[in-house]
Amino acid sequence: MLEYIALGILIFTGITLFYGIIAIHDIPYEIAKHRNHPQQDAIHVAGWVSLFTLHVLWPFLWIWATLYREDRGWGFADARAGEDQLSQMREEMLALSARLAALEKDKDTKPADDPGKSDVKGASE
Questions:
Q1: 49 located within any domain
Q2: Number of structural domains, the chain?
Q3: pTM over 0.90
Q4: How far is 25 from 49, CA to CA, in rounded Å?
Q5: Could you give the count of Cα atoms lying within 13 Å of 97 in the half-sphere of its Cβ?
Q6: Domain ranges, residue 49
Q7: What is the pLDDT along the chain (125 residues), one digit of tens a residue?
Q8: Is residue 121 assigned to a domain?
């Protein structure tokens, strides 16, 4: 009788571990789904792949799933600060483009010092 109880405990433990591991692998996907992550399908597939790699990928999936939040995005920087910086860079680029165009116009309108000489060294030799 004791052998049957031990066998039942072994089978119960094996089944519990099997389903426990499958349930654990899905935690990053559940986090991603809860946070409305834009790549939640990829996280879910990577979780299944992680089962075959003995959960080596699992900590990275957890990090990947927790990086994104719907209210703040990826959370690396404030989006408005990025837009302000982008508009400032656009203004600087336009100013530099205008300055470059003015310099090129001045270069084209300047008369050459000696029209007989070439700008390339060794070309007239």
A1: yes
A2: 1
A3: no
A4: 10
A5: 6
A6: 2-76
A7: 999 999 999 999 999 999 998 888 899 999 999 999 999 999 999 999 998 888 899 999 999 999 998 888 887 655 566 778 888 999 999 999 999 999 988 888 876 665 555 555 555 54
A8: no
